[in-house]
Amino acid sequence: MKPTHAPVAAPRPSACPGLWRIVAAADGGICRVKLPGGQLSAEQAEAVAEAAERYGSGVIEATNRANLQIRGIGAQHAALIDHLLGAGLGPREAAGDDVRNLMLSPLAGVDPASVVDVRPLAGQILHLLETTPALHALSAKFALQLDGGEDLAMLAHPHDLWLSALTLEQRPWLAFGLAGCPGHDAPLGAVPLAQGLALVHAVLERFLALASPEQSRMRQLLQDCSTQVFIDGLGLTLRRDAAVCGWRRAPATSAWLGLLAQRDGMALGVAPPLGRLTPAMLRGAAQQARLAGDGSLRLTPWQSLVLPNLDPQRRVPVQAALAHLGLIDQVQHPLARVAACTGANGCARGLADTKRDARVVAALLHRGAPASVHLTGCPRSCALAHVAPATLLARAPGRYDLYLRDARLPGFGSLRACDLTPEEAGAMLDLPTEHLDD
Ligand code: SF4
Question: Within a 10 A sphere around the Cβ of 273, how many other Cβ atoms?
Fold first, then answer.
């Protein structure tokens, strides 16, 4: 279906950027381009690169929900939006932009470990979200995950509703959970794959029927309403026997950078340093996807790109071209082990220039040390949706408190050191300890 080009009256109030809601930040406007299942064609990538140059500062961010953001946008909002809609980067219905929050695994459909190709169901769910007016009352942050059992999968990001494929009696089913993630939580029940859309619809309608105006997320509702009461009212027959409730999602073991296993071909994962793409990087990746693959790209929750369906014979020149653009293809690379939010350079809440300080920390992390470090300018933790093994929380320009993840503690974990410079933090973190395994 063609995107809706008709202007909308006004975006509804929210702090989240969207295609029509260009949110002001210290470095200009931010426009978020939501990608269906993280998928992007080479032509669309080029359109985003052009938009970032023409209407923004040239900074393009890969988000931790597999979307893109254009930063530093000036006054030409209408022209930018038209440009993006013309490239097919809008929703089916303008009012549906905020709610099309469905995350898939980067190699959905081609990951050799997957139980099922979830892309057809994902298309149905996105269609439901975008074209059902009643569902547009959901918060712009309300998010779903559809996991097909892939080996390259982010299983630690909490979602309001998660679905995960499993096989029971040689048939595909979907286990599901609320306000959590398949990597940590036991399923509440399961339905046959063919009932996946009905389950999603029932959960969303039930949430909207029960939630108060202050309860925009599932975890908030479940503080007042038990999960039992919630699922009892879904009006669906759920399988809740030991085979389902005792099932646990197998850990995902695939690295997210470098050569990635896929059915029929080869995929390559690359990351821009600290999640920021230049227009040249995005254009270059699009060119390689066209030359050596099927002209498609996928964004990932690790703020990186995947080029799927590549010709294995072209591996060496593609890797060389992407490296030449400054894209990282090794998880051991120090900059691949550091995440940082926008920080004081572009966000009024930021207490420190996290992007700059992250480079200082990364330069002190030697290859081989297992640390994975998150620098955040304030407790909102925009760069990561899960808790990193080590978090540096800014307290002043160039000063951080260090937390180490501890499953027994809420938030960032246990406070290990206060008021560190990036140099002091980098030296402390360049230690292979069992606490820092990611
Ligand atoms: S974590 Fe805080 S400082 Fe960093 S981008 Fe988000 S709101 Fe801004």
Answer: 21
